[in-house]
Amino acid sequence: MTELEQEMILVARQGQAQGYRYLMNRYGRQVQLIVAQFVSDMRDVEELTQDVFVRAFEHLPDFDPLRATFGTWISRIAYNAALNHLRSHDYAPLPLDEEQYAPPDAVLWAQDDEEQANEAERLSLLDKAINRLRPEERTLLHLRYYEKRSLGEIAEVMEVATGPLANRLQRIRQKLSKMIKLTIS
Amino acid sequence: MNKTTDKEQDRALQAAMQRRAAQVPPLADDFAERVMAKMNARRQRARRYRLSAALTGIAAAVFVAFLFWPESHEMPITQPEQPVIAEVTSPKTEPKENVGAEVPAAQTHVSARKHVAVEPKPQHAIHEPVLVAEPVLAKATRTDSFDYYLAHLEAEMDALDDSVSSAQLEKLISADARLRQLVNRIVGSEVEQALNAAKPDSTTDYLNF
Q: Do B20 and A142 lie within an 8 Å CB cutoff?
């Protein structure tokens, strides 16, 4: 966390709009993309993103910079808010911390099947397969491959242990591979 | 068989997630203003809620205090002071059964005694005309209080029409414990007087023998 960010957090804690605006400009897009993994309607995404910041600013006194960065902290708020939004629509959350699954295979996608499709088709198939994942799984992929977070940081955001999270990530890659294979075949 | 390496898969997934992110439009220009407006609205709602909660608490406290506060209008019957003559007005309410004119019965029947008009306690389940006394508050004795209630009861009975059945009258009296006591007292005093009247005066008889 930079010094400017620390200063702006202090300014926001004092209730000054300048601090709030800085944090919204800095993390607005990040929060929006996390929420977008759960909600497809862009109006709902915008509304939820606003609610996330309102909640974050109301609980700003609870933020401890020694425990997590502000980005991780607000990402967790966004993740929980989006999940609760789905729960209000009778969505059953995916248990990410289950360790009952067998360790994933080392080899994942079969190149020989994918080579039968051209590049554009492969990309399209992969996009469609990601769309069919559960929201939690998409969020995991987003945090890992778009925000390039470590498993430890992702575990803080999603409040899951690191070990099961790594297994879950590999299972997701296997699932994508199967979906692509099924689509091709 | 040439298998896709993990790194290639990672690159493919990174590209896929970037394509997904690019499909999400940017936040609105007034996003920050909307958030600030929501925050202000929530603060005002919270302030209004705290104010209404405080007012409700104060009102509840006043209500409870009123409920448990000793009734100041009740006559302190233990004060042994001189009674004061007070005026008793006739019933203000119209008789239910149109039994007749309003009569200041209290003055008629208890003219020989001084009494204190006390504000009578509300009677239970009575739909008959109620004698309302001017609350000329003074120090009164227990005897004066009972005398008043006696006068009240007698006035009530006088005001009742003959068509009112005795069962209704019994119901009236038994509905109020105080009335029962007064009736017993009246009947008792009547019986005693009658007995005293019938009882021979031994001294007089002896002298007249």
A: yes
